[in-house]
Amino acid sequence: MLLLFVSYTFVFCCSIFGNLLVMVVVFLHRRLRTVTNFFLTNLAVADFCVGVFCVFQNLSLYLMSSWPFGNFLCKMYHFIQSLSYNTSIAILVVICVERCVAIIYPLWSKQAFTLGRLRAVITIVWLVSAIYCSPRLVMYGTAELPSVSGSSVECFMQRKFYDSEIYDVANFVFLLVIPLVIISVLYTKIAVRLWKSTVDSVEYGQVELRHVRDVLTPKTIIRARRKVLRLLVAIVLCFAFCNLPFHVRKLWQYWYPYFNGTTKSSVFFTISTTLLLYFNSGINPILYAFLSENFRNSMKEVMCCRRHTVISRFVSCRSTPRAAHQEATVDQSL
Length: 334
Hints:
Order of helices and strands: HHHHHHHEEHHHHHHH
Number of strands: 2
Helix content: over 70%
Strand content: under 5%
Distance between the termini: 40 Å
Oligomer: single chain
Shape: globular
């Protein structure tokens, strides 16, 4: 039980404090307010909600004989868990599409991906995800049920509202397999474009160098984009690694004829896959810290309360049009 509590506490701290740090860092540092980071911040918001509404609530199912959080948090526990997952996979697909267009069709992307359109896209992602998950607010609730000690309050799903097997299979196919296939195809296309690019064949660099020829080179642009690509691919791989076992377990319990959910191995498998699912909400800030120098330095500044350093960098980054253009050109997302 101690190991279980420590594991959930670690995931909780990563989900809450890690994602909160990401949001604060992007808010305070203008150089991080870029297109991709706009989407990554929304991803951090979704992951932050998992830490607030899901992690310790799920732990209580194993440590307490009764649901102690009431009917509202019962509904929010299941709603936010689904909302975060759906929003996260949708944001990852949107980021992938945006990066693909920005790298392969750079001039057109500047006109297509305006700030207003990006806000509209992210609003649609949240709204569609919320609508898709809204039945959970009806299907789940609390009720007082008989138990060994007399009675207990349980947070459970009323299965009469839908077929759980079809629902989970549909989620596996449409919310994991198909999005990951799309992401894999697009990132492969991006990787082929970047790794085969040469100085003379980079359309983006050739066009933009008319204004910043003494500051940037096409090779610099390619190197920066490769760093971005490595981070984004790492985020997607971690998402797949953390979520796939959960889906496999759900399918296994439905279709394996000898499944017994009361055995120690089954309980351990359930707990470990659920904990891994929640850990995905806390791992992204760790990836930013290790794979993005800008994020890492900005996190250090915020954690050390280096306010003056942050302000001075605002000034230096925006002191001249050329410097501002350099920031927008090279640091497309990180």
